[in-house]
Each structure stands twice: as C-alpha cells, then as structure tokens.
C-alpha cells in the first residue's frame, strides 16, 4: 500500500502544484499588492491566519528564515489572509479552466474529485504535529468538482509535507541540510535549490561541510551520498511514506489505481502547459 500511496501522491501533485507557476496566481496576488515571493508564502500559509512570521518560518522548513520573515511581514502589512485565500482559489479556478477546458465538467473529473475527497476527509482529524495540514483541513470545501480535487490534493500534499518535516527533524537535519541531501540525491540541481530557497553560498558550503563530518556526503566537488548517507536518506523517505499512507489506505489500492488513471491526463496537461521542465517525471 505504501508504494501505491506514493504513486498516487506523485501523479496528483501537479494538479495542486500548478498554482505555484500559473500566471493567474501571480496576477491575483499582485492585485492585492503582493510582490516578489510574498505571494507564495502568504498564499500557502494564509490558512493559518495572520500568525507571526516565526510560525510560518517553522512550517516552511527549508527556506531561509530571513526570506520567509520579510515576505510574511510585507504580506500582512499589505492585505489579509481572507483576501489571499480568495485570490488563491479564484486563480486555481481560472488556471484549471484555461488548461483543462471541457474536462472541467467531465464525469472523470467528478469521479476523481469524489475519490480524492474521500481520501482527504478520512484524515481530517489527524492533525497532531501537522500544522499546515490542520489549517487547510479547517477550510470550507469548494463545491465545483475541479476545485474539490484541487483542495483535496492540497490537503494531501500538506499532510505529507508535515510528515516529511517530522522525519527531517528526527534525522537531525536542519532546513538547509535537508536541501543539500535533496541535491545529493540528484533529483534537483544544487544551485536551483540553493537560490530558490534564498540561501547564500557560504550557508550552503557550511551545510555541506557539516554533513561531510557526519559521513552523509562524499568529499567530491559535487557531493554525493556515502553509503551511510544513502541509508539515512532512505530511512527518512521511508518514514515520510509510512506517515502519509493513511488516506490512501482508507480508499484502498484499486481506488488509488483508478484515481491515478483519472487524473493522469489532467496532470499531464498542466505539466506541459505550466511546468514543462517536469514533463520527464510524469
């Protein structure tokens, strides 16, 4: 079941993740006066309410805290969480309609929404240690199927994300060290991870040195995992998977396979239009 759950999450992730790349979202946040990265941090954390910046820092684990602090301070001095949430859902609606067209009203969309909602609702009360999931789970459900599916995948994404942070903490990895291990896995280039999370080269090199001292990384110019590091990384990924499987286990593996097949064309279309660099992973 763990593998089926992981496959289902991966296949549905573009359906939620498109909101971070859709021009409709950037435009909606700009209309509220949010510039730079403020729209991203405000939109994803707005479900928490106008909490102090350190709370958002705590939930956005691998970003430079200075970036998060500045973005949230700007956001809540410019607008409010309710306006940002409304803008986010309106942007998701426009982006999904623009890319998926008539599929928005298809029987496949309705069935995918029903299955995904069933998975998400079964863990709605499982909020202990899952702050971002808890905040989003407290929001009202949309009514239109394409937004039900988007909201459900948002919940499932944050449910898994909170579990991943718990695994990273248990493994003794700081936010930037977690990024370094992600780079060492070869999944994403180190420079992309460093710059997108606003870490300096000095910060990055210090994290690399610390992980080398703990025998996680080799001494190569572009560090890769030692056998110890590879084993530890596998352990934390396993822990993340194990603590994220419950919603998928509730609907069962056949329903997960059905959900994958239903959403595959939606995710593929969104990747091709908004995230073409990720097409090879689909």
Task: Tell me about this structure.
This protein has 282 residues and is mainly α. It has a domain at 2-18 and 103-169 and 239-281. It has 15 helices and no strands. α3 crosses α5, α3 packs across α6 and α7 packs across α15 (253-274). The radius of gyration is 19 Å and the shape is globular. The mean pLDDT is 95.
DSSP helix fraction: 55-70%
Extended strand count: 0
Radius of gyration: 19 Å
Task: Please trace the helix and strand order, writing H or E for each element.
Answer: HHHHHHHHHHHHHHH
Secondary structure category: mainly alpha
Low-pLDDT ranges: none
Q: Tell me the strand percentage band.
A: under 5%
- Overall morphology: globular
Number of helices: 15
Overall mean pLDDT:
95
Major pleated sheet? none
**End-to-end distance:** 20 Å
Summarize the structure.
The protein is mainly alpha-helical.
Keywords for this entry:
282 residues, mainly alpha
Topology:
Elements: H1 2-17, H2 23-31, H3 38-45, H4 53-59, H5 65-78, H6 81-100, H7 107-121, H8 131-137, H9 145-170, H10 175-184, H11 190-196, H12 201-213, H13 227-242, H14 246-251, H15 253-274
Helix pairs in contact: 1-9, 1-15, 2-6, 3-5, 3-6, 4-5, 7-9, 7-15, 8-9, 9-13
């Amino acid at each position: 079941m763990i593998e089926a759950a992981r496959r289902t999450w991966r296949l549905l992730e573009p359906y939620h993740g498109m909101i971070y790349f859709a021009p409709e979202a950037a435009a909606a946040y700009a209309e509220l006066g949010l510039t730079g990265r403020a729209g991203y941090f405000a939109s994803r954390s707005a479900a928490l309410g106008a909490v102090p910046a350190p709370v958002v820092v705590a939930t956005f684990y691998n970003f430079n805290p200075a970036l998060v602090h500045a973005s949230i301070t700007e956001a809540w001095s410019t607008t409010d969480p309710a306006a940002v949430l409304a803008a986010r859902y309106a942007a998701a609606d426009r982006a999904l309609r623009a890319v998926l067209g008539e599929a928005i009203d298809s029987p496949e969309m309705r069935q995918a929404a029903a299955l995904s909602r069933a998975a998400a609702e079964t863990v709605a009360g499982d909020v202990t240690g899952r702050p971002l999931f808890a905040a989003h789970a407290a929001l009202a459900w949309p009514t239109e199927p394409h937004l039900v599916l988007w909201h459900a995948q948002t919940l499932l994404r944050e449910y898994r994300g909170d579990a991943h942070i718990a695994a990273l903490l248990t493994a003794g990895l700081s936010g930037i060290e977690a990024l370094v291990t992600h780079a060492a896995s070869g999944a994403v280039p180190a420079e992309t991870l460093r710059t997108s999370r606003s870490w300096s080269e000095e910060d990055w090199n210090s994290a690399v040195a610390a992980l080398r001292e703990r025998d996680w990384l080799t001494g190569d110019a572009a560090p890769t995992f030692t056998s110890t590091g590879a084993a530890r990384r596998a352990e934390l990924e396993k822990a993340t998977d194990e603590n994220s499987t419950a919603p998928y286990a509730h609907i069962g593996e056949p329903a997960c396979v059905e959900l994958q097949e239903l959403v595959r064309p939606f995710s593929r279309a969104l990747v091709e239009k908004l995230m073409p660099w990720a097409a090879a992973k689909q």
